[in-house]
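Q: My labmate handed me this sequence with no annotations at all. I'd like to see what the chain might look like in three dimensions before we decide whether it's worth expressing. Could you predict it?
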Amino acid sequence: MTLRQHKMQAKPLAHKSLYLAIVAVISIQFVACSFQEYAPKPIDAAQSAARFSSKSFEDSQFQQFLIAQGYAVERLPIQLWHLDDLAYCALFFHPSLEVARTQWRSAQLAEQVAGNKPLPTLNSHLAHSDDPDPAKKPFALGLGIDIPIEVANKRLVRIEQAQHLTQIAKLEIAQTAWQLRHQLAQTFSNIQYNQQQISLLAKEKNLREAIVRLYQKRLTLGEASNIELSNATLQLQSSENALLSAQQAQLVLQSQLASQLGLPLAQVNKMALAPIDEERHQSATPTDEVQATTLQNRIDIRIALERYAAAEAKLKLEIANQYPDLVISPSYTYEFGDNVWSLGISSLLALLNKNKTNIAAANQLREVEAAQFDALQIKVIQEASTARAQLSQASAELHDQQQLLVQQQAKTQRLARQFAAGEIDRLTITYAELENVGAEKALALARYKRNQALDQLENTMQKPITTQSLFNQYRGEL
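A: Here is what I predict for the chain of 478 residues:
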């Protein structure tokens, strides 16, 4: 066999080998990769509603959750619900927490995506020539690969930006948890105050009924006028209307509590709520540490700092984008009988523009985040000062009402001794007892206002005032 014949046979073999190599590489791309299949997951509204209806605070998983948070086993199931107990119930059952957690998991996946490196691109081609020249082979085959190379640490900057966004999503879980607790604290205070109102209004109603009966007897004996009886009757009707309104408000408050707990109303109606926490009311009023504690604990401030950091990372990325990425493209071509090897390098021509517009926009975004942080911090400082002043005022008012109640009770006791001695009539002592109820109502209102001020101060600091609160531990974990 001549050398020419050997070359003529070798070229078809090379052409066939190259074709097989192309087919093999393409086949490996499709076969070796593990593709995921779409799985439909429709939402069943009826099933979702059934799951909500079946929720119960006696659920074993909820009991295990409480044990994990530090509850003693002998305390379970909870018989008397305090604010912290309700807060943990909302953390377990309320759907908004799951929404926040899902968004956090989505941000974590976005962080992984940000760390992905650009993948090489495989390309090939097949051509056929109608040239009748027998010296030329009729086919041309090519195989190439484009290898992208990122410059200026763009991948690391993307990861940094995604990490800040993930931290924001995590902090929003804590923000949601705190908002739930604050709403519960307000509703809990409203329910406690309303229960006191119902009790005191019922006592007032009984006393006014007694006064009406006394005036009716006096009118019969000619010792009272119709006007006095009418006034007493109108006051009785006013008390009855106030009592009815308070009883109806209790139903609305129970519904609000159920909504904030994420439980059916039937379950909430089974809960025995604790009375007003006197220890919380008697806790020392925070001093100048309020501002420092507030700035340290406010979740929205921490979120604002993370937003600023994410804006800085975006600016870094836009500055890095001034430098175009490179693509290295080695390839082999069998071209009508010739073997051709090549190495290409390509890049975007961005040297003239230098990404100026995007850099300016990213820089302006950073300025916006900085201004928003300054505004938020000033607002928080002002809120802390206002909340502390409101608590001080409410505490002073509560002290005054406590003193007035003591004085009224002493007066009532003195009149009771006079009544026992026959020095005054029953109408006088009944009115004294009614004044006593009025003083108790004023004290309940003052206590309610102070409780509201405490709730507002806690919300400003975003931290429970009582150090014994188990919620402090849970919030620290978030």
